[in-house]
Amino acid sequence: MASLNERDERGEVAVKVPPASPSGSGDYHPPPGAGPVPANRLTIDSAILDRVNGALDAIRAGKMVVLVDDEDRENEGDLCMAAESVTPEAINFMAIHG
User: Fold this and answer.
1) What share of residues in the chain are helix, strand, coil (percent, to 5)?
2) What is the pLDDT of residue 66?
3) Cα angle vertex 8, ends 19, 43, to 5°?
4) Where are the beta strands (DSSP E) in the chain?
């Protein structure tokens, strides 16, 4: 994978994401001798990242997804899709069910 802010073969910006911790907590622990983790380093559980990437793939494919807030916040969901994929039927669905 390319370094942070470099473009990969598809022209997309690559972001290095550490692997999930063995405990599954999402906390990143660098390998021995790797030095301290920079304060701006993105740390995220790989299972969560897979779900985000799945949602992005669905949006790219023109599908509608539900974005859900953290249950400790508003605990609600929003219907979302790419603007170029919006149809009158999609807007109608959002108005009735969203």
Assistant:
1) 30, 10, 60
2) 93
3) 25
4) 65-68, 77-80
Burial 23-47, CB ≥16 within 10 A → b, else e: eeeeebeeeeeeeeeeeeeeeebee
Distance CA 93, CA 50 (A): 27
Helices (H), 2-66: 46-60
Tell me what pLDDT residue 84 has: 95
Q: How many CA atoms lie within 13 A of 47 on its CB side?
A: 7
Residue pLDDT, tens place only, 18-67: 444 444 455 556 667 666 666 666 677 888 888 889 999 999 999 999 99
Report d(CA 18, CA 28) in Å as an integer.
7
